[in-house]
Amino acid sequence: MTYQVSAIATTVLILSIAIAATYYRFVWHADTPGEVPLDEVAATLLLVFGGIFGMEMYARYAHKVLWHDFEPGWALHKSHHEPRTGPFEANDIYAVINAVPAMALCAYGFLTPHVIGGVCFGAGLGITLFGIMYMFFHDGLVHRRFPVGPIAEVPYMKRIMVAHQIHHTNKFGGVPYGMFLGVQELEAIPGGKEELDRLVEALEAREAEAKAAAAGAR
Asked: What pLDDT digit, counting tens, does each position of 184-195 carry?
């Protein structure tokens, strides 16, 4: 419950600040009052999506090379592969570490006019949005640290969840290390797609049984 409150409160706060900052940045740096600098808007949007995709690629690399293969990184990350004894774990510090470049890029981009500012601001927003998405999918959907509602019913979301659960079994050498493209990463491994399909089918069968039992108890 403590983690859920922290996650929701942080998300609402960050999104509110991001929306307000985005609006005031373009208003503040407009050469003509009321004019929307389309080149800056385009640069910002491009880097928002680029930042999200780039973070998925970075997360895949960092997860394997820095958090699993690198001993100091594993010293923190191993808490995520062990039973949790409270609302938080040592591995959560990585979220704080990743927030530093995001905040720096957002701050620099907010204060800097023209396209270069839009690029930096967009990259910072992209990293931030990825972090929020990762928190809800990884911590909420996969590890059930808080409920995520109907997200868990979306078929592809189930595949993301099961793919990450396979990572925790170490059956394919830890693959997948990515999150949102973890399904594709796993399916590229011999036997990965078959294992994923099998576990997803088993999950859906258990869910169907649970729903039938709940309906019968009414």
From this structure: 999 999 999 999
